[in-house]
Write a structure and sequence with these properties.
The chain has about 300 residues and is an alpha/beta fold. The protein has 11 helices and 5 strands; from the N terminus they run αααααβαββαβαβααα. It has 2 domains: about 80 residues, no CATH class; about 220 residues, 3-Layer(aba) Sandwich (Restriction Endonuclease), CATH 3.40.91.
């Protein structure tokens, strides 16, 4: 099923802008790979509301038993996806227009107003950890677009739930100069205790032979930052053994660091604030596929952002 999804189903859905999910579709999750038949008594746990789980199993059962015509069911699902795609397109236009109005009403824009908008949107949405990654990546997009030298090329936003250790990624947001990591930030939502993360970082650097001689690396924590003696000891150990000094910043601190960076490059706070909000909104609206190829449905994210901009 993963092969069929990757080679046929997902490319077709993306081509006609009907649905954007990871290239292996629903079968990326281990839940559907369990060695049980898809019956109404399917044993594996599905992370969905019980009603949705039962409906899905009932549809599969009816298809196998001839209770539903497969062609008719497929056409019906495609029609639903088309309607959702049209609704999303209309929502995107409304949201981008609302952003322009919000910016005009709040001029001159302040850093704190942008931080508050983004933080409130993250806290009121689902998949908050992913939104934190998008917000951070969008700010570096804005810096790059305004001509701030990042020391390399900003890497496109990685797919959700990418196995960082397997793929050799140092952080969720990375800047590369050729194959050399020059900047990397790992977003951590509600995960202030970083002992395990530091162990994994050291393993990744060792296993993938990553050159950290020019790397500026840190963890960005949201909503709060805490300190632990053991974590500080591990940071010192990594510095001694690998020559990498790990930073730990709260989200607000990290954002202010980027604004200082832009000011040093002659970019005004207002210009960067506007560029950041535009990059964040357009990324969620799937208007920046090259920089932020987000493959999870973003309808709810955009809808909640539109309500905050109204």
């Amino acid at each position: 099923m993963r092969t069929i999804d990757a080679e046929h189903i997902i490319p077709t859905l993306r081509k006609y802008e009907l649905l954007r999910i990871n290239q292996y579709g629903g079968y990326m999750t281990r839940t559907f790979a369990e060695n049980y038949p898809y019956t109404k008594f399917y044993k594996a746990e599905i992370r969905a509301k019980q009603q949705a789980r039962q409906r899905w199993l009932q549809v599969v059962d009816d298809l196998e038993n001839g209770g539903i015509d497969a062609d008719a069911a497929l056409l019906y699902v495609l029609q639903l996806l088309w309607q959702l795609s049209e609704a999303f397109s209309n929502l995107v236009q409304k949201t981008l227009s609302s952003l322009e109005t919000w910016i005009d009403k709040n001029e001159p824009l302040s850093i704190n107003s942008a931080i508050m908008l983004v933080k409130e949107h993250i806290e009121e949405s689902e998949a908050r950890a992913r939104l934190l990654e998008v917000a951070m990546h969008a700010l570096l997009q804005a810096l790059d677009e305004l001509g701030v030298d990042l020391g390399g090329k900003l890497k496109p936003l990685m797919p959700m739930r990418t196995a960082n250790k397997k793929h050799g990624n140092v952080g969720d947001v990375e800047v590369l100069s050729g194959n050399l990591h020059v900047e990397a930030w790992d977003a951590k939502y509600e995960q202030p205790y970083l002992s395990d993360a530091l162990d994994e970082l050291a393993e990744k650097i060792h296993e993938h032979n990553i050159d950290v001689s020019e790397l500026h690396f840190g963890y960005v924590l949201f909503p709060a930052k805490k300190t632990y003696p053991e974590v500080n000891h591990k940071i010192d150990d990594i510095d001694d053994r690998l020559g990498l000094r790990v930073q730990i910043l709260a989200f607000d601190e990290w954002v202010h660091e980027q604004f200082i960076r832009s000011q040093n490059a002659g970019i005004s706070k207002e210009n960067l604030t506007k560029a950041w909000l535009q990059a964040y909104t357009e990324s969620l609206c799937l208007k920046r596929r090259d920089e932020a190829p987000i493959d999870e449905p973003t309808f709810d994210w955009v809808e909640s952002l539109a309500s905050k901009l109204a």
